[in-house]
Amino acid sequence: METIYVGLLGCLAVVVIGLLLSQAKDGDSVAGSGSHAFYALRNNYVFVYALMMAGDWLQGPYVYALYQHYGYDVKDIGRLFIAGFGSSMVFGTVVGSLADKHGRKKAALLYVLTYAASCATKHSPQYGILMLGRLLGGVATSLLFSAFESWLVAEHAARGLEPKWIGSTFSWAVFVGNGLMAILSGLIASFLVDKLGLGPVAPFDAAALVLLVGGAVVARSWPENYGAGAAGGAAGGGGGGEGLVGTLRRQFAVAAGAILGDQRIALLGAIQSLFEAAMYSFVFLWTPALAPGGEAIPHGMIFACFMTASMAGSSASGMLMKRVKVETYMKYVFSLAAMALAVPFLCNVDLGPGLLARSSRRLLQAAQEQQHQGDAAAAGLFDSSLLTAEESGGVGRSLAGAAAAAAGAAVRGISLQGKIQLVAFCVFEVLVGAFWPSMMTLRARFIPEETRSTIINIFRIPLNLFVCVILYNVHLFPISSMFALCATFLAVAALLQVRLEKLIQQSAPPAFSYSAKGAAAAGAVGLRDLRGSREGDTEEPRSER
Signal peptide position in this chain (predicted)? Predict the structure, then answer.
């Protein structure tokens, strides 16, 4: 193995350790009468979030490999992954929005049951059953990215905790759930399949078990909470006899009113969609960028480098939030991310459509021949480093898994150009690690509580649509051009962040957007009155607490 991988991993590990030691030396900013309640809530949430993410990460290395094991070709597998993203965009948005009305705890438990059922479908080789599993997985993904965050924000406010403390919870959740759990789950999945010989379905069974354990913790320790305007009706069990269609219509009307009536919320949605679109695309593109000629690259070691980099980013964000306003430093995060993903374009890694398609077919043939040697499974680890595991297969899985399988026959290691890009990709992963807790903190401040889950899922609609387009057409565009598009998205996100920062400076937003009366009024009487009603409610959350 080339020294660049060991050296890069070592440097990143030193950075993470240094950041953790620095945090310990600085001490925690949490102090006062509410500190014990805060630590209890934070530790519980981080533990639950880690279990939920572990249940997702365990599936990552073997999603594509399992479909291939059942004898499906690239085209059939591509349809399965597109169905998953489409389900998240359509059904997931609807189901996720119901969490605000019927309870975030119920939505978290629904995530557990839905994802566990999706895991159970992997036992069947029938295409229809597997398709059902993808549809269930898409719904689960929407719940994962909305219900848990919404529950935490509401519970943090309901317990009267300092709003500035919530960033610490998000930072630790991302550090543990998206970093440590990713690495540990990949190792466990590989052990189950390669060492114990339990077959490619075993990681899915393990994932279901972990999810059910997490669900038991939620059921026993989480109180229920609702959107601010839904609490009374839901708690009373009536809801006014509104009905499912009426509930959805009202939720989406109020959410649309909030987005259109508050430019800060609209900007947050646009920024999130742009960043995540670039991030998801990166998962499909990194392997052909680093190994355009089928060079031998150790996918497992690269995965470890990227996950360690992400952990460094989440640790750094926790420190930054103590010293700098989130809206101030995020423009630099997006700008640096744009520069990092522009490197492949500047290096002119240009695989034409025909060459990419031919190389993909050759690599996939090699993967099928060497599948029993475990190469494809080992390679699959990284594909889930930026997405949920169920989402992260698709084209990225086929390219990454096949490239690793062919690596044994490759006579060349990574090129100098590839090394430069690898460093740039690690920088991008650091920024991804900083993005998640920072964006969660901003959403906690500005998204109205009544429709928090609904709005978060609406933000994901353009993202899922874009990824479906990428999955369907990835073979038509040169790799360097797609990286240039990703860099452009991130540059636009940086410009929008500058605008958002100015808007925040001009206003005096509440620490938590825990009242949605202005948004509710907009849904009832029209958007023209929304701005005035929201301004009138600006200080209400503080007085309520």
Answer: 1-24
